[in-house]
Design brief:
Elements lengths: L2 E6 L6 E6 L2 E7 H5 L9 H10 L9 E4 L3 H15 L4 H7 L2 H5 L4 H9 L11 E3 L2 H10 L6 E7 L6 E9 L2 E9 L4 H11 L8 H7 L8 H8 E3 L5 E3 L15 H7 L13 H29 L3 E5 L6 H10 L4 E4 L7 H14 L24 H11 L4 E2 L2 H13 L4 E4 L13 E5 L6 H9 L9 E5 L3 H4 L11 E4 L5 E3 L2 H6 L8 E3 L10 E7 L5 H14 L3 E6 L11 H10 L4 E4 L2 E4 L19
Parallel strand pairs: 1-4, 4-5, 6-11, 11-12, 14-22, 16-20
Antiparallel strand pairs: 1-2, 2-3, 6-7, 7-8, 9-10, 13-23, 14-15, 15-21, 16-21, 17-20, 18-19, 22-23
This protein binds fe (ii) ion.
The site of fe (ii) ion has 7 residues, from helix 7.
């Protein structure tokens, strides 16, 4: 038995993954345990979880692989500093990861952190390093169902690379093209995230959500001034407009002048049509870059299969466009496409590329186990946790539970659905989810404002039974990780009535809805999660029951958390979130909790508990 511990840390989204004999056993992000969103520290709790889940001590582990090469990264920071000095000093000192500020990263630094888990761990030579984009590429290819594929990685920046193209064949990956810092599609998108007043590294999703409300009026300005984009999708940024290499902000005054508005202050300035048009424009340019890259690498390699990872691969709208263009027959995207997934990629890269082990290719099925790779609590454990919290609950067998929850959903109740192993990656996929009735007209607004405490424009995603996908959406392939956007079928589209528009607080006239308004965006698009019997049988059963009663094989699925909070991990987290929001019902394994039965004193104000994201 060979065990490999993969670690990503000290940048964004620290995480740990355990791979045993090439199989992904467990994986989790540190933020879920520390309750600090995007926690970038040493992932002590995540490492502890993956080890204890396999009853391993750290000294039992054969190899430990870190997801990037610190010295290469240091070199990039140093060269950027030298190139822009002395103006770049602030950026240099602030952008230095924690380990660099404390002391130059040494193997010893990680060794000391690891030693906290097990005194007996004494072999520093067990620690190895992968490259940042190689880890992304490995996370995208090795668990995929393809024997061979072309692999595209896109993110902000790793060591030097920001975009790479690789070929994957059997158990080997070969990177053959790279775009280097400061030219970065991830940083370009982040610059616009910053400009529209959202938080870099977490607000990118909001920009994507805002885009359909606007028109891409500034796309030519971006392509003329900011990005020089070639036919083959390669690009260079005009650094005259950006500040991320030289200062503490993403964009500079020239950038603001170019678009005629200053950077939006999220505390003072409301979102206007201008910001929506800006969001639509950068989304358009991003899609154009990804589409051109995908087309040119398809032509160059002749491959039918595309694998993707890196933070930009979470842009499910762009992914949907690549799929629709049919440049590849099949697309597989790593669900933990951001840096958390680097821990998984680093471990798999070592197993296959370094140790030369063969892959187990399961045609048509990936090796991610639905991405349900985190901690779980059985009904007994849930019961004792809830007892110690003083919670009031009912216990039901599977059949009663499913029928009870389906009926409550029909009554437009909102439900916290806590089942099985927690998801790995940023999306909730029916293990730590808030679920609701997609047919309800008021649900989007109600969930956003009363449960999630966030902006009312934020869209929700549908969980749809895989077998019913074609009847409802213009999509014809699995999308188990909510990484593809597609349109609702024509037959399900309806024009929104005026009074409905008012309900959503949106003035735009050409707004479109469907018979599942709570999960349809204003352009008829939806970010789809296909639900499969094999990977999540209980959730599948619930949606099937809902379909039996309503004719609709779909539920609203949003992550179980509020604005700024990491997705709930433990029963305690779930109960706190339930009692601090307007959620009606909490279901933990086979236990059902109704809000009205809980001790009133336990209700608390949760709204401002977490930092705005
Ligand atoms: Fe990355």
């Amino acid at each position: 038995m060979t065990s490999i511990l993969g670690i990503s840390a000290f940048y964004h989204d620290s995480a740990a993954t355990l791979v045993v004999d090439g199989k992904i056993i467990s994986a989790a992000q540190e933020e879920r345990f520390s309750r600090k969103k995007h926690d970038a520290g040493y992932p002590f709790n995540a490492v502890k979880f993956v080890l204890s889940n396999s009853k391993l001590k750290l000294s039992d582990v054969d190899y430990i692989v870190f997801f990037e090469k610190p010295f290469l990264k240091f070199e990039r920071l140093l060269e950027t500093y030298v190139a822009f000095a002395p103006r770049g000093f602030n950026s240099f000192s602030m952008s230095m990861p924690i380990w660099l500020r404390e002391k130059l990263f040494q193997k010893k630094f990680l060794f000391d952190k690891l030693k906290q888990h097990d005194e007996k761990f004494n072999n520093i030579d067990k620690i190895h390093f992968s490259e940042h984009h190689f880890s992304h590429a490995a996370s995208a290819f090795y668990p995929s169902p393809f024997k061979d594929a072309v692999i595209l990685t896109l993110d902000g920046v790793g060591e030097w690379a920001t975009t790479t193209v690789a070929k994957g064949k059997e158990n080997k990956i070969n990177i053959f093209n790279e775009i280097h810092f400061p030219h970065s599609i991830g940083l370009l998108y982040s610059a616009f995230t910053y400009y529209t007043g959202f938080k870099v590294n977490s607000g990118e999703y909001k920009v994507m959500g805002l885009a359909p409300y606007g028109e891409p009026k500034y796309k030519n300005l971006i392509l003329d001034e900011l990005v020089s984009l070639k036919e083959d999708g390669t690009f260079r940024l005009n650094m005259k407009y950006f500040n991320y290499a030289t200062g503490l902000t993403m964009t500079n005054d020239k950038f603001s002048k170019l678009f005629g508005h200053k950077v939006r202050d999220p505390e003072k300035d409301l979102l206007t049509q201008f910001h929506m048009d800006i969001a639509a424009s950068i989304q358009y340019v991003t899609e154009e870059i990804v589409l051109r890259l995908a087309s040119s690498i398809a032509k160059e390699t002749g491959s039918k299969n595309l694998c993707m990872a890196g933070g930009v691969a979470l842009n499910c709208v762009a992914n949907g466009k690549v799929l629709k263009k049919n440049v590849f027959e099949n697309i597989w995207i790593q669900p933990a496409a951001g840096d958390a997934g680097g821990s998984l990629g680093a471990a798999l890269a070592f197993w296959h590329q370094e140790l030369g082990n063969k892959r187990n290719i399961n045609h048509g099925k990936d090796e991610m186990k639905g991405s349900y790779l985190g901690p779980e609590f059985n009904t007994n454990e849930a019961e004792s946790a809830l007892n110690s919290l003083g919670a009031k609950y009912e216990k039901h067998d599977d059949e009663n539970l499913i029928s009870l929850v389906a009926n409550e959903l029909i009554k437009e109740k909102t439900v916290g659905w806590f089942q099985g192993r927690m998801e790995f990656g940023p999306r909730a996929l029916g293990a730590r989810s808030i679920i609701a009735n997609p047919k309800s007209e008021k649900m989007q607004k109600e969930l956003n404002l009363k449960v999630k405490f966030r902006e009312s424009f934020r869209p929700f995603a549908p969980s749809v039974l895989r077998e019913d996908l074609n009847e409802w959406f213009e999509l014809d392939c699995d999308s188990p990780y909510m990484l593809l956007v597609s349109e609702v079928k024509k037959s399900k589209q309806i024009q929104m009535k005026d009074n409905e528009k008012k309900l959503f607080g949106i003035k735009k006239l050409n707004i479109k809805r469907s018979s599942i308004p709570a999960v349809t965006h204003v352009d008829y698009s939806a970010r789809i999660q296909t639900v499969h019997k094999e990977t999540n049988p209980k959730y599948h059963k619930l949606i099937k029951k809902f379909k039996e009663l309503t004719g609709c094989p779909i539920l609203v699925n949003t992550s179980f958390n509020i604005r700024g909070e990491p997705i709930v991990c433990s029963i305690e987290d779930a109960y706190k979130c339930f009692m601090g929001t307007n959620l009606d019902i909490l279901v933990c394994e086979n236990l059902v909790l109704f809000k009205e039965n809980q001790v009133k004193n336990f209700l608390h104000d949760y709204k401002n508990k977490f930092e705005k994201d």
